[in-house]
Amino acid sequence: MPPRRAISGRSQEPRQRFAEEVRKLRTASGTSLRQLGERLGWDYSLFGKMEKGETLSSPDVVQALDTHYGTSGMLLALWELAARDHTQFRERYRRYMALEAEAVSLWHFAVSVLPGLLQTAGYAREVLSAGGLKDEELTQQVDARIGRQDLLEGKDAPHFRTILSETVLRTALRDGSAWREQLEHLAEMSARWNLTIHVLPFSAGPHGLDGTDVWFLRLPDARTVAYTENAYRGELIEECQSVEQLQRAYDVVRDLALSPAESRKFILRMLEEAPCDPST
Known about the structure:
Blueprint (H helix, E strand, L loop, with lengths): L13 H16 L3 H8 L3 H9 L6 H11 L4 H10 L10 H7 L4 E6 L10 H10 L4 H13 L11 E7 H5 L5 H14 L5 E6 L12 E6 L5 E6 L4 E4 L2 H17 L3 H14 L7
Parallel strand pairs: 1-2, 2-3
Antiparallel strand pairs: 1-4, 4-5, 5-6
Helix pairs in contact: 1-3, 1-5, 2-3, 4-5, 7-8, 10-12
């Protein structure tokens, strides 16, 4: 069933409504994407992605648009509604997503799949389709996963640290071009000011998080909660003793992992080894 629309004909889905308004304001002003980029100082492709609903961008960009169009904070208000809309995610993730949006810092360990915050659309599509999603639901979940990455944008973005098992980087996509794009994106993200990437090599041996993807969220009230997940279920853990036990295991894994500089070199080596032609 298609989403309900208001009498105005505009979408009532927050992310789509924001994209519609951004596009409407630009077209009404008679400005091209390239002209808008030149006037505001951002690459014009960013505004194209915003109008397609591929990204919400950051509050700084939206504030600049509000000022440019003289909309008195209307766009920023729509952006806030879209950023806080968790109905786009599957039910079992919504409580976690609400807490993630509030987090001041995040720590993560990946067993076999890159975290959604670092995935390209091509990677997300192949991974989610392997999990059984298809058609409209697949597209919706890919869009939701990519849109979630706006969390890392802006001057107030939380710091994100992730430890990637070497398995993650050795499990290539079937689509060679998409895999190269993912590795390039990972190398680019490893240079971000608020992002730290470690690689846990096979030589580290067994450890306490074998088989367990885990997230830790540091919340504004100084609490830390954990979230563990596999392909079939996820569990939000808020009980202090259980969170502490997981954190101790995480600290051990972090000590075994390569440094951020060594990890970046590892990723770049993987990129060099990746075939340029998907047919090779």
